[in-house]
Amino acid sequence: MPADAPIYFHEDLYCQVELLPRSAWDFCTRQLGLIADFAKAHRQGIGYADIYLRPDAPTALVDLKLRADDLDRLLAARLPRHRSVTTGYSTHVEPALGTVGYGQQSYCLLVEADKEGIVKGAFLKLASLQPSELEALHGALSELAHTVDLLLVDWERGVLVALADSAALHGYLSRALARGRST
Q1: CA 6, CA 110: separation in Å to the nearest integer?
Q2: Would you give the end-to-end CA distance of the chain in angstroms?
Q3: How many domains does the chain have?
Q4: Which of 33, 69, 75, 163 has its CA 20 to 30 A from that of 117?
């Protein structure tokens, strides 16, 4: 896919596999436990009788004052950049303003910035992942870990990984490759 081709993510995927400051580790651990307990208590047939609304983390990427252009230089050196990012549901599609994608349609790190160019969110889309793509994404995330102390939390799968823990990060991405799932 050419680097100028648009990247699409379904609105339900927004921050389901997100990057947060490492200082949010304890919060994420508690929330993952609460989510698992809530899911177990509200399971009904093939669905759930209620929904859990996860609160925002006490520390967010915006608190780190990361510049989107600094991340862009780091990420675009390792992954194709897509300045056109769209989101939506069903047949509704709209621009994801302030969001840049790094990767391909099937796997992508999406970085959202405010009008001042400060990163306010970053999350992964992992629809499918080939071995070479896994290595490219792992390399980019590992490089990012040398710049800022972040964690990756997969709220759906209940996984929490420090980006600086290269082996754990690689293991997480390898499991995503094996599942061939959409996160």
Answers
A1: 12
A2: 20
A3: 1
A4: 163
